[in-house]
Amino acid sequence: MQINPYLSFNGNCEEAFKFYEKTLGGRIEAMIPHEGTPAADFVPGDWRAKIMHARLVVDGEAIMGSDSPPQYQQKPAGFSVSINLNDAAKGKGIFEALSEGGEIKMPFQETFWAKGFGMVVDRFGTPWMVNCEQKAV
Questions:
Q1: What is the reported pLDDT for 74?
Q2: What is the average pLDDT value for the chain, to the nearest integer?
Q3: Closest C-alpha among 37, 42, 32, 35 to residue 69
Q4: What domains sit in the chain, N to C, each tagged with a CATH number?
Q5: Dihedral pair phi/psi, residue 95, rounded to 5°
Q6: How far apart are alpha carbons 116 and 57 in whole angstroms?
């Protein structure tokens, strides 16, 4: 069994996933627009180039997402995408990149459980936690 986050965007899924690919060092495996699929007939004409499904893989883990038509779009709430790594310097770099144009909820800093931990909502509205545990994860 795998449990993967599936993120919804308000028309900027492609931009977000290209940013995540660069920031997290992953690889986009799918970027499928509505155009050319049976779903194209169910979205407005100006929405057909928007993303129906995207998949990004980072170190064997996947994040997926799509653009939600405006009438279905909701602000993310009640969750964060959690990144866990051993390298605090790398964690800080990822946190700083995710923070650009976003809103820092908790600055990246050492805590009693982590060499570095921070919380941010990125410029696309996705909430993140970056955690670098004291012990190897």
A1: 87
A2: 94
A3: 42
A4: 6-67 (3.10.180.10), 81-133 (3.10.180.10)
A5: -60, -45
A6: 24
